[in-house]
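If you are new to this repository, start here. Below is one unmodified record pulled from the training split, so you can see the exact layout before writing a loader.
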Amino acid sequence: MELVRSTTDQSISPVPENIPRDITEADEKIFQTIISQELTPEDISRLQAPPRIYPRQEAVLAIHWHPEFIPLNLVIQRIHAMFPNRKEELIIPTQHNVLMRHGEYSGVEVDCYSGGFNQKVQLLIHFRNEHLENADVFKAMLAHTFNYRSSQLFDFIHTITQPVEERMAPAASETGSGKEIVEFVRIYVQKIQTLLERHESEIPRDAIKNKLLRDFFDELRPTYGDRVINRAQTFLKTVKQLVKADFPTKYFYRTEEIIEEARSLGGGIVIPHPEQFWPILLADYDVDGIEVWNPQSRRYTDFLISVLNEKNRKRRTGDAPLLMFMGDDTHMGEKRKAPALQDPKKARREIGLQPAWDDLTIRKQLIFANTDRKKVIREYKDRLGG
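And here is the target side for that same chain:
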């Protein structure tokens, strides 16, 4: 492998000069690996067996998690193994823009658009299954949102292959990526685009997402090494953020439209990720509760609890209080990967595992709020109609 000198940092870059532009057998194999949803015996064993067991946790609240392509029976086996002494539970999957059911309930995490502060937001929506018998309009809204959201992958790809310089140049500058890394990324993203076109009819619909690029480049580590791939992934992530920032939101349904349709079906609604969409706390939407903790927002938990306490104090007599939720935001597809290829932060997440409920400082605030996991489970079940 011939080394070339980076024009950015003047250090030796281990990116080879003569990368094959045509699709190789190795490229095909990588592509088939990352779109495959077949599970090996090793995958199944890894999915069934959680790394830790929590025998003292008696209540399992899990209303924000993503099965992805992992069969629900394996997911539930893992949950049961983690919490062998559970006495109360509310476990509802929330796939992105796709309704899924478990037991008596169905759920979804929906992308929508809030015009008041010009931002895409997300809502967790949950139903008792029998309330979805006449949900054709809601399901059509989800299908439109799913297809539109998936189109972001192609914008991401075209930004790199065409290229769109107003995104590529800032990404290269911000990450210190020299022309060798940028060209390395461009060559392989072009290959991915060709492979997507070649295998369009056989690709699972839920594989059409931005992380397809990340997963492909991770599979190149044995060939090019961690240093090159880490630099490529940093550049890719920055380009993706610029693409997402420019992604038109006008084709999403308005937040009010999603809420109105969900409420007409007896759905419950929870705001996740308020640390990302903080203006939503000011919007006074018709929701049942707000997520005060998840693995991405631990630093704001105290603040969010105080916000909900204040909102509940000001609510009119007879109005139902806003509930405090905690969401683990687990992505089960991450756990199917070999440990060396997992994103460590996402891999540590587990369905129903929300340590903040038991944190001594946070528990003090939860006592003032007169809430805990069991109370939230019972109240939300009651609101959902069961």
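Two things worth knowing about this chain: Residues 52-134+265-384 form one domain. The longest helix spans residues 221-246.
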